[in-house]
Amino acid sequence: MVDILMIVPPPGVVCSKFSEGVPPLGIGYILAMLNQEGFSTAIHDFAIDSTPLTDLELILQREKPKIVGVYASTIMYRNASRIAKIVKRYNPEILTIFGGPHSSALPHESLIDGADIVVRGEGEYTMLELAKAFIREKGQIDQIAGISYKKNDVIIDNTSRDLIENLDVLPFPAYDAFGKYPVWGSILTGRGCPYQCVFCAGKNVFGGKYRFRSVENVFEEIKLLYDKYNVREFCFIDDTFTAVSKRAEDICNFILQEHMDIVWWCETRADCITKDLLALMAKAGCKQLQFGVESGDNRVLQDIRKGITVEMVELSVKRAFEAGILSKCSFMVGHHSDTLESLNNTLQFTEKLIKTYYVHAVVGVNTPFPGSDTYDHAEELGLDIFNRDWDSYNFVTTVFNSKYLKAQQISSHFNQALALINNSKNQYHIDDHIYRVSPSLYTLKPNSNR
Q1: Which residue, 12, 130, 258, 373, is most buried by CB atoms nearer than 10 A?
Q2: Is the domain of 253 the same as that of 312?
């Protein structure tokens, strides 16, 4: 029996592989906050578990929760709604709470589709106050910032909650709840992003600026995972880990000073990396950088407010390669200003990076997630969104026509990009796991039979 059961829904049925085994750190922080205050908690993640949704009632019978919190991203939203209905059918007295980027962007839709309450934005303090109000009867719902709810069939949006400025006050995620996840060493050293890419919906939860934890606080978490949980593979999952180079340098120096035998990877941008920093990161165990490239056409990169050029990307990838760090570059096809010419430029640039620097390329269809500028200003950007079935918002289905391209043309180029990437994996023996933890760059060699 637990007070609060947190649930991660399975993604939409079209998407066959969603989770890469990274624990849901947002939920981990909420669980830790609740546990710290004496509430009993549990988590069930359908995204990595083979359990069908039809077994949810058995889980509810086992846990007997008073509150069920459901993570609602766009790709999971329909199943989040199904979960809420199953919960209410099992016991209408259980409070259902939705949180996450989709519900934060469209809270009223979530209330119509099964949520009793929607947590908008960061959830740690909001969930704690809700637990105190509904389980311990301490506090009033109309006084809790950052929530939306229905009262007498009228939807009420309480005032927004301020972002947490001092992230060091938060307890570390509840790692003991993450036993089923293969990628344990996932660390979020900061929240938010200072950049303004039109396709990003991340600001719905973490705001439009980068807030950091102190380097000392990050050190403590690395040591905890290294000493207590014997973690030797780490992933810094900040949107831009090297946004402040001095901070990244300090973390690298700590790893070296502690003589930690680890490998790690992170996400960054082409304009947030230098030759000296790359050398230090490689020395500290960094084996892969993920660059959000998005397009191989400079005009499109400017239109989507990415703030980089293809020349910057190639230089950063080249420097990483020379430092012994592999690059993973993500692309999207079907930006609002893409044309057949710009899509061909992206395809050619992707192929160049793969063949020259052994880049691990990934590609998705540009998807107008609620809360992104692409979604909020679709008409202004010339997009005709004809599909609002959230299961289709899965990075592989085209849900709009643009000013320059029909959905079928975007899908065709997506398939061409997939074929290029898959053929390159076979040609160069590229493997996801090797890319993460290979002890040497030069274990990846072209196939002599190509």
Answers
A1: 130
A2: yes
